[in-house]
Amino acid sequence: LTRLGVLVSGRGSNLEAILAASRGGVLDADVAAVLANRECPALEVARGGAVAVVRAMPLGEFGGDASRRDAAMADQLEAAAVDLVACAGYDRILDEAFVARFAGRILNVHPSLLPAFGGSMTAIEEAFAAGVGETGVTIHYIEPSTVDAGTILAQEPVPVRPGDSLEDLAARVHAVEHRLYPATIQAWIEGRVARPQGVAR
Ligand code: GRF
Questions:
Q1: Interior angle at CA 29, CA 24 and CA 34, nearest 5
Q2: Is 174 an annotated catalytic residue?
Q3: What is the pTM of this model?
Q4: Chain centre distance of CA 89
Q5: I need a labelling partner for 150 at 20 to 30 A (CA). Which of 65, 91, 99, 101 fits?
Q6: Residue pair 178/13 in contact by the 8 Å Cβ criterion
Q7: What is the pLDDT of residue 7?
């Protein structure tokens, strides 16, 4: 089984979907570690899912130095023998040293059809406010010096329907995330997806 490390900051609904897929046997992966940049509900999801390594690693513990924190996170993930890192609502930019240590092995889920509404933690709200006819979900690699701009593995459009409230749209986008992210992680495991430039399998 592929060993997954999941990085979180928020509610943990994508983590929940990954854990459910793993338990249900549709994802050939074990969640070996869940790390967060702060205490958050997602860590409770991890504890409830009996993940072996669950840690909040707030900047304060590292003298406010994000590179030290990211190095410690990478150390934790390596100690847990993680093969693939899945960011699931993680709201910090990982530094270049971290990204280099896991080159081609860090994925992210973003709630828009990138490049539209990239670089923002409020992509669903922005798409709703812009009045677009569709938005969607993107699964992409995290690559050095990019924000929401790494090689795309999968995208799925989500329609905005007349009369939708923001909550209606957000629920529809999240439902697609919860299906598409585990499915794309499985596709990565099976080698059925694009690889970022310069990274061998
Ligand atoms: C998701 O919409 C994800 O795409 C975005 O942040 C949200 C995280 O939600 N990056 P959750 O913590 O997985 O519930």
A1: 105
A2: no
A3: 0.96
A4: 6
A5: 65
A6: yes
A7: 98
Q: State both tokens at 60.
A: 């304060």
Pocket test for ligand 1, best of 6, 9, 13 (most atoms within 8 A of CB): 13
| Burial label, 192 (beta-carbon count in 10 A; 0-12, 13-18, 19+) | exposed
- Ligand 1 centre from 42 Cα, in Å? 10
**Closest ligand 1 atom number to CA of residue 173:** 2
Tokens 């209606």 map to which residue? 168
Interaxial angle between packed helices 13-23 and 166-189, expressed in degrees from 0 to 180 and rounded to the nearest 10: 40
Tokens found for residue 9? 């900051």
C-alpha angle 53-59-62 in degrees, rounded to nearest 5: 85
As beta bridge partners, residue 5 has 33, 85
Residue 115: cis peptide before it, omega within 30 degrees of 0 = yes
Tens digit of pLDDT for each residue in 141-172? 999 877 888 999 999 999 999 999 999 999 99
Residue with the smallest CA separation from ligand 1 atom 5 is: 89
